[in-house]
Specification:
single chain; alpha/beta; Rossmann fold; 2 domains; six-stranded mixed β-sheet; about 35% helix
């Protein structure tokens, strides 16, 4: 399978025709879609899940379709209590098959692994990505080891194990988990006829077209492009993918304007907010403390530059919210019938902080289910 449109973002080396390297063997750079994503209107009504948009994935037709019915999540409109004329529509990604938006990316990553003959895959995650990948890998018959930080919530760990994946629990901060996995992967000696891959949702580019399907769905649901997208940001792949989807539609002349992208981070770990606000800081100066929004506790986003540029190019911004605001946001969402994890709840407080200042309609992305955090 030739992937001429995927190249190293540093040295421009094309993605190889065999194997599943998570980064460039020539310079260590990250692979990306070098010319953006394609866009053709319409969809295949007989395809399952996000695969009805596969003509926009920028991937060959030979790719198998692994699906659990992901995508097509509803929009729920809520009015502000103190300003009833202002409202927001929440895209309910917590209603995906495994309870998080990660399913859109896992469907394509797993399909790619299957096409490349991968039998064993490793992934690191604070919970949602690991649970999602474990589910789709089980569907594809791929053996999985998920490296998680010791602090990962119990329900997410139980969910990962329920799909048959093996958990490797790593003491220390989230970044330590990635370091240990990469060391184990680089030193792995696979048995004969076994292909092992690091199926990283941060390094591999194949989840980006999956997240872009949110853009296509939003346009269909609204009948127009949104004015603003507010989303939690850790690695930033979700916001980047949504931006790429709207960019593809805009480049194709299908829409006349781009929505503003607003990325939200926890005050205790907000590297992208810090860089966008103060410039290229020494990352040692950026806080990396424990936050209840565990899904966005990422000090070194792999595609940080791309996320920053995507937000900048649409006149967007980054915001931070405190732990108290996250807790209050979760309560307010629950009062409106939306039970989400704390990582998702950052969207509520960000919306209230910017009430009346953002282009409408405003869309908030609710990324993960609150059921994943019940002791």
């Amino acid at each position: 399978m030739i992937l001429d449109n995927i190249k190293c973002s540093n040295c421009k080396k094309p993605y190889p025709e065999t194997g599943v390297p998570y980064r460039c063997s020539n310079c260590g750079g990250v692979f990306d879609f070098s010319e953006g994503l394609p866009f053709q209107p319409g969809k295949n009504p007989s395809a399952q899940g996000i695969w009805c948009y596969r003509q926009n994935f920028g991937l060959p037709d030979t790719l198998p379709e692994i699906s659990l019915g992901e995508g097509n999540t509803p929009l729920v409109w809520i009015n502000a209590e103190d300003h009833p004329e202002k409202k927001i529509a929440f895209k309910c990604e917590f209603l995906e098959p495994t309870g998080s938006f990660k399913d859109r990316g896992s469907a394509i990553i797993t399909s790619f692994l299957m096409e490349r003959g991968v039998k064993i895959a490793l992934e690191d995650s604070s919970g949602n990505a690991g649970a999602s990948f474990a589910a789709y890998a089980a569907r594809a018959g791929i053996q999985v080891l998920i490296y998680v930080p010791e602090s990962a919530s119990g329900p997410k760990r139980s969910q990962i194990e329920a799909y048959g994946a093996e958990i490797v629990s790593i003491p220390g901060k989230r970044s330590k988990t990635t370091e240990v996995l990469i060391d184990a992967f680089e030193n792995a000696k696979p048995a004969q006829n076994q292909t092992i891959a690091y199926a990283s949702h941060a390094y591999l580019p194949f989840n980006i077209p999956g997240y872009a399907t949110i853009a296509y769905e939003l346009y269909e649901q609204l009948g127009e492009p949104p004015g603003t997208i507010i989303s939690p940001v850790g690695q930033g792949g979700l916001l980047l993918g949504i931006g790429r989807g709207f960019e593809a539609m805009h480049t194709a002349g299908y829409i006349s304007k781009m929505p503003m992208l607003v990325g939200v981070q926890a005050e205790l770990c907000a590297p992208l907010w810090a860089v966008s606000t103060y410039g290229q800081l020494d990352f040692r100066m950026i806080s990396n403390e424990e936050t209840i929004a565990e899904g966005i506790r990422v000090k070194y986003p792999v595609r940080g530059d791309e996320v920053l540029n995507s937000v900048k190019n649409c006149n967007g911004r980054f915001l931070t919210v405190s732990e108290e605001e996250i807790i209050e946001g979760r309560k307010q969402l629950a009062k409106n019938g939306l039970f989400v994890e704390h990582t998702s709840a950052v969207v509520w407080s960000a919306w209230k902080k910017t009430l009346g200042t953002l282009p409408e309609p405003v869309i908030g992305i609710l990324t993960g289910s609150g059921l994943k955090t019940i002791p």
